[in-house]
Amino acid sequence: MTMSLAQQNPLDCRRNAIRSDRRTPARTPDLSRLLLSVLDEIDYGMLVVNEHARLRHANQAALRECASGRTISIRAGLVTMVNRSDETALQSALRAARQSRRSLLQTHGAQDAPTIAVVPLDEAGGTSTLLIFGKQQSCEPLSMEFFSRSHHLTPAEGAVLRSLCDGKIPDQIATDNGVACSTVRTQVSSIRCKTGTRSVRDLIDRITSLPPIVSRLHLRKGLAFSESELAAA
Length: 233
Known about the structure:
By secondary structure, the chain is an alpha+beta fold. The chain is 45% helix and 13% strand.
């Protein structure tokens, strides 16, 4: 005779549920994959290399910088600087890292060449070093786009906001867009009103403190190195 759910003892129901849970093991996430995904959401380029500058890991921001070929690249799994003096400085910084010393490397070869922090990692033998790239822009474009949408800025106001964050003044923005300066000033006032900011400085401070929202388009191929080279590294 089969009892309905209403006729079953609640204690028996709970025991059956526990047995069912035991028969179905919970799927635990791969922590290493989660951590790599977290690194890709950070808008600071980060490379992990060994004592010979051989690549061990690169996040998406670092891959974009390497793909640009401005100051740093990856060839045959090795991290190399485009400028010869930068390469000498990098090798010196890696030697210092093996002695648990941190360095700050100012790169050359481009007007907006990044500064790179060279940080030894706590690993047996001190063979791994972290290279952290300085930010190239005050705010990720996607973060600014989401900020504009959440405050209902018009496309024109969004463009003015981006220009303000690039350090341009209203006169320059007006010239670039072929409009009167009074138009730009009106747009700036509208942006401040919608975002509840007291001044342009306050507005820019809000933008620079936004959390990063990076592109979901991942760079893994078509760079100066191949998947097989990364695997061999």
